[in-house]
Amino acid sequence: MSSVFITGIGIVSALGIGVEAQREKLVAGKSGLKSAVFLNSIHSNTFPFGEVPYSTEQLFSLIPVNTKLQQSRLQALAALALAECFTYCSPVGTSIRQGLVNATTVGGMTDIEDRYFELILPENQEANTDWASGLDCATGTEHLARQFGLTDFMTTVSTACSSSANAIQYGARLLQQGILDRVVCGGVDSLTRFTVNGFNSLKNLDKEACKPFDANRNGLNLGEGAAYLLLETEASLQQSGNRPLAVLSGYANFNEAFHPTAPSPEGLGAFEAMKRAIEKAGLLPADISYINAHGTATLNNDESEGQAIRRLFGEHVPPFSSTKVYTGHTLAAAGAIEAVFSILSLQHQEIYPGLPFHTPMPTINLVPVKDFRQLQLKHILSNSFGFGGNNASLVFSNYD
Amino acid sequence: MINPLYIKSARAITAQDCFNSNDLSQASRPCTGNRFVYVEPDYSRYFTIMQLRRMSRLTRIGLVAAIECLKDAGIAKPEAILTGTGKGSLNDTEKFMHAIRSFQEGTLNPSPFIQSTYNALNGLIGLHHQVNSYNTTYVHSGFSLEHALLDAALLMGDNTIRNALIGSFEEMTDEHYIIKEKLGFWKSGAVSGEGSFFFFAQQDKTGAVLAIEDLQLLFEPDQQKIRNAVHALLAAHQLQWQDIDVYISGRNKDTRYDSYYDLVSEQLTPATTELQFKQLTGEFDTASGFGLWAATRMVETGQLFPALVLKKGTSTRIKHLLFYNQYYSKQHVLYLLKAVE
C-alpha cells in the first residue's frame, strides 16, 4: 500500500483555537474543562464541560471567509479548523482530485434544538427556514465543502465516538486506491442539550473532571470541537510541494458484537482494532512509542481498553494517557482531535500528561503518564472506541 | 472506476408489498396523503416480544431486511457491515427531544437516545448475527448508500474483506414531514417515501447475480457535467448507448429537477427500456436502494417489473443497466450495472 502523508492539521477545542493554543495548554498541563457558558441546559453548571470558550458569533468573526456557511456553531467550529488545516499548504492545480470526509454524531442539533418545537407547528410559517436543514448531517459538510472548494467529493461518517477515526481511515483508502489524490478528513460536534441529556440518562457523566484509568473514575465529561487532517498521496505531494508533518501508517476498524452501548470487559474490539492497526503499519506492538488512549473515564471503557492494552502489550506497555482530561469527550471530533495531538507529539517529541492520577485500577494496574515528558517518539497509536461496539485505531509515524 | 462489487442477494422493505415475495408483481399500494408508508413485516417470525420492545420501528425494519438478505445469500456471518442513512431513526430522535422538554432535562429513559445514534442498527445487526467485523455508517443524504458501497469496494480492493452486508434505511415521521414541507421538499410534485434495503456483496462473482461495475458521485453538477459524466462512464467500460438494455431513473415528478433525468433519456436508443420507481416508493434520501434492489431482482428473475416500465425498448435481454438517481439536485449518483453470467 502506498503511503498516506499528513500535510496539514487544524483544530478547535476547549483548549482554544489553533494548534499553537492547544500545545501551550497541553505542555503546561492546563485543562479546558469547566462549567458551560454557551450550552443551553440546566446541567451547564452540574458537570464540567470541554466547551470552546467563544460564542458562536465570536467564532464566526474569526473565520477568514464565511460567506457560504450557515449561522451554525457546528459549521463555525469546523470552518476554523479547516481554515487552519489549509494554512500549511500551497494551492493545487485543477488536476488534483480532492475531497472532504467529515464526521459528526448529531449534525446541527445545537443550532436547531432551541427552535425545534416551533418548527414542527404547521401553522408557524417563517419566511426563511433554511436553517432547519442543519438537522441533516450532510448539510454542515456541504456548506463547508462549498466554502473550502471541496465539492468534487464529499461524505459524512457517523459511528458515534469513533466517527472521525473512521473518516480518516476511509480517506486513507480513497487515496491508496486512487479515487482521490488528497482528502481532508476529520470531524466536528458542538455541545447540545440532546447529547448532554443522552449521556446523563446513561449515568455516564462525572460531576468532577474525569479521571481516566483511575480506580476511582466516575464517568466522562462531554466536550466540543473540530479537527481536520489533510492527507496526500506521494503523487499529490510532488505537485503541491507540501512537506509532510507525519505519516498515517496504520488503521483498523473492528466492531465487537457485545452490547448496544457497553464494551466487552475483556476489550475484544479494542484489542483487535489496535492489533490490526499496528499490523497494517507493518509494525510490532513493541514499536509503539506512546498510546493516545480513548480513555473516556467511564467505568466500562477504561476497564476494557486497559485489559486490551495489557493483553496486546503484555509487560511492556508503552507510555499512554488520555487527553480527554483537557478537552472532554468531543465525540465525533475526538478521533481527529487526538490525531492532531498525536502528530504534535511526534513533531515535538513530547507527550502530554494525564493530569492528576491517583489509584491504578486493581485488575490491570496500569499507570498513565503523569508528567509532561520529552522522549524519542517514532510511532503513536491513537484509539477511538464507541457506542455499538465500534472501535477504531490509527497509527501515526514520523516522517523521515 | 471501482473494483466491481458482486451482489448475491438483495432485500427491500418499502411501501409496496415487496418483502415477502422479494418481488414487485403486486405493486399497487397508493400513497396516503402525500406519503408512502412502510408495509411492515410480520415481526413475530423474527423476534420475541421482549426483543421487539427494545427496538424501534426503523431498527426492526432494518434488522429484518438484513436477516433475510443474509439468509438468501446463505451467509451466517458477513466480513463487514456497512450502511447508509440520511436521517437514521427519526422516531427515536424526536422521542428523546420531546422527553428532554417534557421532563425538563430530568431523569430520562436512555433507549431513544441510544437508538437515535446513526450506527445503532449496525450494532444490532452485528449483535444479532454475532459478527465481529469492520462496521461503519455513512450519513450523507443522497450519497449515504453509495459511500457504503464504495467503501466496501475499497475494502475488497485491498483484500481487507472478501464480502460485506451493505444496506440503507430511512423512515419518515409526522414531524419531519412538516419540516421537509417547510423546506420545500413537497411543493413541486414529489411524494414522501420510506425504504430499507440490504445487499450481500462479494469480491468474487461466483454465485452472484449483479455486478456494480462502476459508481459515480457528483455534487450539485450542472447539466453539462452530468452529460459528460454519463458519456465518460460508458466510454470507460467500452459501451455504446445501444448496449444499455435498461435505464432506471429516479424521477420523482419534481418539476424543478426531473429535467436532469431527461439528459440521459434523450440519449437512449430504441433498444433501451426506461424504468422509474418513485411512483411506488416515494422520495427519500436513500431511495437509490430501491433501484439497486429492483435491478438485482429483475436480473435474477430475467423479468422486468411491469409496474416500473415508462418506455419499453426493443432489447430483450437484461445485461447492461444504467441507473441514475439524484436527491433534490444535490447528490447525483450514477451506477453502471451488469448481469453476472
CA(first)-CA(last) distance of chain A: 18 Å
Would you list the SSEs of chain A in sequence order as H and E?
EEHHHEHHHEHEHEHEHEHEHHEEEE
The level 1 CATH classification of the largest domain in chain A is: Alpha Beta
Radius of gyration of chain A: 20 Å
Task: Provide the number of structural domains of chain B.
Answer: 2
Note the total helix count of chain B. Answer: 11
The CATH architecture of the largest domain in chain A is: 3-Layer(aba) Sandwich
Query: CATH homologous superfamily name of the largest domain in chain B?
Result: Thiolase/Chalcone synthase
Overall strand count of chain A? 13
Indicate the CATH class of the largest domain in chain B: Alpha Beta
| CA-based shape of chain A | globular
Q: How many domain modules of chain A?
A: 2
The largest sheet of chain B, given as strand count, sense and whether it forms a barrel, is: 11 strands, mixed
Give the CATH topology of the largest domain in chain A: Peroxisomal Thiolase, Chain A, domain 1
